[in-house]
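Weekly modeling sync, notes
Attendees: AB, CL, MP (scribe)

Item 1: holo prediction request
CL wants a bound-state model with adenosine monophosphate before deciding which constructs to order. AB pointed out that an apo prediction alone won't tell us much about the pocket. Agreed to run with the ligand included and paste results into these notes for async review.

Input as submitted:
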Amino acid sequence: MSAKIVGIRGMNDLLPENTRIWSAIEAKARELFELYGYEEIRTPIVENSSLFTRGLGEVTDIVEKEMYSFTDKLNGQPLTLRPENTASVIRAVIEHNLIYNEPKKYWYFGPMFRHERPQKGRYRQFYQFGVEGIGYSGIEVEAEQIFMTKRFWNLLGLQKDKSPSLSLNCIGSKNEREKFKDCLVIFLNDNKDKLDEDSIRRLSRNPLRILDSKNSVTQEVLSQGPRIGDFLKVETLENFSQLCKLLDDKEIKYSINERLVRGLDYYNGIVFEWLSPLLGAQDAICGGGRYDSLMQSLGGKQADACGFALGMERIVNLVEEIGDIDYSRRLDVYLVNKGDEARRIAVLLAEQWRDVGISVKIDMTNVSLKAQMKRAAGSFARFVAVLTDLEVRDKCVNIRPLQKESVLTDKRKDRLESQQSVPLKKAGDYLLKCLMNEDVKS
Ligand code: AMP
């Protein structure tokens, strides 16, 4: 026997039991984005590697260690599976000149790829929803995007007391950040002996990332160090407080976390994250912020912009734990059949029922009636219809509701009472009526 080929570590199959909740959440997200006037954009999964090395920054974790990159065999071009989608959206905006006359609001959904160490909530292929508001400079965009995420938690029915919490920071302009960075590096060099290995490595390459180190000793050291807020100009602080005021007006709770820097180079100004302790170590569910210089660094004109990305796998976990949306399976009829002529008629009958909107699954195996009935009982159908050559001869079909208990526990009398022999021609109407009655009851 040949060796079994298995999937790649950290890249998950989504089985039907997973895809139901995924589709339900995707539908809610689409509804949300449309409510805010955002339009969907889809970009390819593979891009030129330089898009990410230039866009995200050479010394970010993603570019240094996590990209799936390869060379195109035909022309030697360096290519990369997208690790995130903001750079791709901006590339498309530049390439198609999409903001030539007005700013644009876009949303996307799709898989991203990062070569991280897989664990719960962290995968190598994972899905993100995201939005980008391109060509906007005011904090109204940040406010709107935060309102939007908050509304999403409500649409997903997340229990209010357990729903994600919002962290905010302002990391200022490049200039402001550089001054802070210089001071931070001097301070951390003076305290180098107390830093963890990872932070020492980052000190020369990307010192700001030390701020979100999970090491408690490093955090203790940082608490004595310089604070970004002290390096921000009055206008920057004023802008930040305007956003806070809008959030207060909308009664959205937040905490300001001066250590929140986000991992990518392109961010400036206000950045934010939604966190949930229910997710364990990987507690960030959504992250975003302003990126006013990305468009220019990718060869476009200057355009201020702001966006966020939401991790789908983590939302799914939260919805399963504290959410309330309907993702039940729906099938109206399971059509059991036995005999050659019955099988032929069943295929045609099912089409007639589907014509009027009734969903039907036909058993297309040749197993015994009993085995088919068992499958029907274990299915999620609301009715079972039985067609054997006997029914075909009488031009009728037997229909009965699938009350799981009565089928499974063989309450023969109940079953017979609720069973109806319906003329083939009238069966569609009959089923429609039954389904409507059931809907009213439920
Ligand atoms: P980022 O693009 O790193 O700002 O991430 C935005 C969101 O995507 C995070 O808040 C997570 O919810 C999700 N995310 C990021 N990386 C992963 C990963 N490796 N696996 C699963 N979800 C992720």
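Recorded for review: Confidence is low (pLDDT under 50) at residues 405-409.
Action items: CL to compare against the apo run; MP to circulate these notes.
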